[in-house]
Amino acid sequence: MIDSNWERVGLVEAPNAESGKNIGIVILDNIVSHPSISHLENRVKRVRVAHDFSITCSNVTEEPFKTNLKEHKKHGLMILNLLSHKPFDLNEKYYVGLASASTFIFLPTSSEPEKTKLGLEWILDQDWNIRVLLNLRVPEAEGWMSPNADHPHFQALAPALTKDILIVSAGGNSKAHNNLHPIEYFTISGFNDHGLHQVENYEQHSSVPFGMNSEGYYRPDLLAPYTYLPLPSLLGQKKLDYFGGTCGSATLIAGLSAYYFSTTAGLSPNDIRSAFMQAGVIDNKFEAPIVNGSKTLKLLRKGFKASDGRLLTDTLIKVTDPFVDIDSKSAIKRALALTVLIQRARLSRDEIWEYVDDDSHEVKKVAITGLEAPENGIERELFWSYTFKESSQFGVREVWAYALLKTSVKAEISNWIKLIKVNPSIDLLICFSFFLKEHYQSFPEMEITPDPASIHPLVTSIIDWYNDYVLNEAKDL
Questions:
Q1: Of 220, 218, 222, 221, whose CA–CA distance to 332 is shortest?
Q2: Phi, psi (5° rounding) for residue 132?
Q3: Phi, psi at residue 450, to the nearest 5°?
């Protein structure tokens, strides 16, 4: 049996029906009308920005229900259920959302920063008392390292920062990520609690990225449960559905934050952020403090205030001359400089190759991204050689694998099998699933879950399929 989300974030008692009342939460995701959210009535809104930049707002629960949903359509719906579903009991467990009484405003424009900014400005002008923005856009998939302040998506959320809104951001589900979220975002990653609030069984999650961002700040800020986050069955059955990944982890913290805002007057975003981190459980085997919801709530109710009213966001690392900074002792500065030089076409391909052996995983990822894909057979052998010898600890092996995938070759299936046999990761299985879809359509659909325990059974089934495939190929000769 899976523990409730409120137990797993460390609360000693479930939030009541008033949790999050009069607090608005902006969610950068899409949403559809569905029976599971009908109880929210006019507290679920969708703001759309059209191609002509006109803005409309609709009450989602007034739209016809959609029940036959594809997986990508369920994402926003499951996020909302984590925050506010109808309370229910199942197998002597009590399940309830963390921000049951909040107002939820969905802004489905996260891939178009100009629209995001316009929609957000409009939302913040309404009378919804927005205190939290849930940013479900994970760090960029590419391995470049560049100042976050220059990124259009960071600029799109500037209105929320100006209005002192707490931006809670999903930290990403892949160690292939390189440039992690800016310090202005309260960045949440996950840990593997196996679905239970049993501290002695907590483990690192193998897909969680961590390290310095482009400004020299360590990310993430806080860890929350990552796998098997329960919500009511979307089919109305008497069972649980599950969500996972840092989008789920960040949603739990966004819900807790709305709960705190609604129960304790006079809190600033930095008060809540600092309290979470001060009250979090520190364990050297984890990348950041682990959420302790009850201790955080007690701290805030005792009048805790952050030492600084607003978060300090000075850039700690800057590149002034990339030709000089490429030789810096700072790995982040070298990665920033290398990104500039490659993107400005100031290095030859041979010169880019020199950096795949850098001491820093950040620089290696930039170099691999600059190479993009093998240009010939000799390079292809080199790409595979580096893929096999690199580590998954910081995602360098995964970046090589994604690069190979861009120009994948059917005859390389034995290499992919060899790769996933030794220390397989979720990223490598995702790569392999794309490879199979392109070249081996007969292979059954792979169900890749966020649970690390599912990796080895899946690898076993893949190897069994491959052995049968090779055997049948030999019979046909």
A1: 218
A2: -135, 135
A3: -75, -5
474 pLDDT more than 80 = no
Q: Where would I find the H helices in 238-360?
A: 246-263, 269-279, 293-301, 322-325, 331-343, 349-353
Is the alpha carbon torsion for 367, 373, 378, 384 positive or negative? positive
From 291, 282, 59, select the one nearest 190 (Cα to Cα).
291
* CB 93 within 8 Å of CB 1: yes
Distance CA 366, CA 374 (A): 15
406-457 confidence digits (pLDDT tens): 999 999 999 999 999 988 999 999 999 999 999 998 787 888 999 999 999 9
Residues 104-127 pLDDT 10s: 999 997 789 999 999 999 999 999
SS3 label, residue 453: helix
What is the model's pTM?
Answer: 0.96
Radius of gyration of the chain (CA): 23
Q: Which pLDDT tens digit goes with each residue over 177-197?
A: 999 999 999 999 999 999 999
Look-up of token digits 């999650």: 205
Dig out the tokens for 476 from the structure. 């046909």
d(CA 442, CA 369): 31
